Each structure stands twice: as structure tokens, then as C-alpha cells.
Amino acid sequence: MILQGKTILIANISGRRSTGWAIAQSLSKHGARIAYTYQTERFGNEVRKLFEPLDSIDLGECDVTSDDDIRKLFERLGNEVNTLEGLIHTPAFAKQEDLANDFVNTSRDGFKLALDISCFSLIAFCKQALPFLEVSGGAVTTLTYIGGERAVKNYNVMGVAKAALESSVRYLAADLGPKNIRVNAISAGPMRTLAARGVKDFMVMHEMAKEKAPLRRNIETSDVGDTALFLSSDLARGITGEIIHVDSGYHIIGI
After folding, report:
1. Is 36 among the catalytic positions?
2. What is d(CA 251, CA 114) in angstroms, rounded to the nearest whole number?
3. What fold does the segment set 7-249 form as a domain?
4. Per-10-residue mean pLDDT for the chain, 255 residues long?
5. Would you kindly state where each structural domain of the chain is located, as residue ranges?
6. Of these residues, 36, 38, 155, 250, which one is catalytic?
7. 155 labelled catalytic
8. Catalytic residue of the set 38, 145, 171, 250
9. What is the pLDDT of residue 42?
10. CB 30 within 8 A of CB 3
């Protein structure tokens, strides 16, 4: 029970097949109280049912492209708690056409949207969470993918967004470290999640990763959940600014 008595916010959970839900289960098993958000009421009914058996706080909808929505989210959180020991950031999105088409044809609006939701939202959340996290020190964890390090077919603008996200992790870690707040990212291998459906030829990528990874298997969302558990706990108290690969070793293979 390494998170007993700690409150951790997860933003935004999209349902049973999301990585955010897998993380919530891992954290909850070790005593954490989970505060959670979802993007719209379309996801709300399912997400609330998932959390009914857990010690949790329903903070409602949050449009991560709206500073006002994020501010109001933390106002609602402040009615429940005055400290956070962790923040898990999961939002990521790009327009379907900007994933499927050649990168050179990325639209300006699509580029802005992908960077806003997938990267800037982390900065916006950290800013609002700061008064809660600095009470006793805390851990921020976000999710990335190897497409932020290398050119991955059909990942396109999302890869650029993830590269910006990973750079933001390092700058935030440098900013917030003096306040005893750690910031890290988990670079997960391909998983069968709701978000993966938006990537063209995802199953081809999924099988290729399995064949080439040293462990000869794909990861499960629970692998990411348990890594987030570690990073959110005092066991990772000396780790910040890192991109932790959870991909069965796929990222080490050169050919």
C-alpha cells in the first residue's frame, strides 16, 4: 500500500479501454484516492460506473483546451482536498486526416489542435495543480510514445506533439524540482486502447513491435499502470525529467 493516504488526479479518462483507467486501478490497489475527470458527458456515464467501487472523487467534465475549464476543475478539487500527491496527464488527440495523410500535408489548425491538447494541456494542468502539489511535494506523470523520438508511419503530427511533450517534461522538471515536484513521462509500446483506433494500420504496428521487441510480447495497459504507480510513489523520489520506456525493450533495437 505504497500510496496509502495519498490523493492523485487523473485527467482525462475515456473509459474501460483507456490507459488512464489501467493507471487508476494500479494506484487504487495501493491505497490511493483517485480524483478523476473526463472530456465530455459522452464518457462520463461509463467512467463514473468504473469508479463506483473505488475511493474516488468525480470532478466532472474538463475541456483541456480551455484555461477556464481547467481552473474550474481545480476549484472543484479544492472543495474536496487541499493537497495532491500526484497528477497523471493522459489527454492526446489529432485529427484523423492529419494522422492518415502525409505529414507535409498537415493542416495549420490540425497542428495547433494536436499540440494544444497533447502537449500544452500538461503545462496548463501543472500550473493549476502547483498549489496542491507543493504542499508536500508530488509527482507528475504523462504518457508519450516512440513516435516522439523517431518517424513512425501514420503517427505524423502526433509524433511532433509527443516530442514537444517530452521536451516540456524536462523543462517542467527543471522548473518544479526546487518545489520537490517530480515530472516524468512513460513511453509506452503500442496497446489496444481506444486511442489506438485512430492510428491507421495500428494492428500492423502492434504485431511488428511484438516480433522485434526483446521480450517478444506486446505490453498491456497494466504494465503502464504499474509503472505510473512506481513513479507516483516515494520509491521514485530521486527520478525526474525522465522518459521511462515501457515497451518490452522495443526502443533499443536498431534494425
Report:
1. no
2. 24
3. Rossmann fold (3.40.50)
4. 97 92 97 96 92 96 97 98 97 92 96 98 98 95 96 93 98 98 96 64 74 92 97 98 96 86
5. 7-249
6. 155
7. yes
8. 145
9. 87
10. yes
